[in-house]
Design a protein that fits this description.
The protein is of the alpha/beta class. The protein folds into two domains: 76 residues, Histidine-containing Protein, Chain: A; 85 residues, Histidine-containing Protein, Chain: A, CATH 3.30.1340. 48% of the residues lie in helices and 19% in strands. It has seven helices and seven strands. The strands form two sheets. Strands 1, 2, 3 and 4 form a four-stranded mixed β-sheet that branches. Helix 6 links the parallel strand 6 and strand 7. Keywords: Signal. It comes from Thauera phenylacetica B4P.
Length: 219
Amino acid sequence: MTQPQHPDRPAKSSRRALLLGLSAAIALPLLQGCFPVVATGVGAGAAMVSDRRTSGTYVEDEGIEWKVAARIRERFGDGVHVNVTSYNRNVLLTGEAPSETVRGQLDGIVAGVEHVRGVVNEVAIAPNSNLTARGNDTLITSNVKARMIDAGTVTAHNIKVVTEANVVFLLGIVTRSEADAAAEVARTSQGVRKVVRVFEYISDEEARRLDNPTGARRN
């Protein structure tokens, strides 16, 4: 699959100076849109600084996830179990739907949300998973993240890990070598039956540029 191109990003030194304003910027749309107030403040600000996405895209991803999930609930209620993950405005759908018709309708819901660039629909045709299965998926995600940190072969904050029915999905803006290292950690983690890469690939040079807070300004 041809990976989408992404524009140059501002230097992370600029992000540090804007953290206070960005925290307020997050809070305002959340309040106006009746979003639940989560993951804001210092924690969200620190995450934005270390992320390869622009700060604006980071905020947009949070809003996309909430909007898509809300529209799915409004449309189907408890008739589906769908997890929504947005990374660099590309949306990953995981979970279960009762029919192929319903599964297909999810694509339309995502497409109707502002700022979405694309959708990867990995929803299975199956009954909704139970709480035990979902709890197990959460444990797998935590274990994979911890092993990435321990391995030291990949910068864990550049990789987003999502687990559904023991299948691990990996998202991020990464180099090929980073992708391979992350996939290997996930593949060899306990309980994982499959690894799916949902990466956007960049060159080693671009990765260094994005990770360098004192690098040349990116407009």
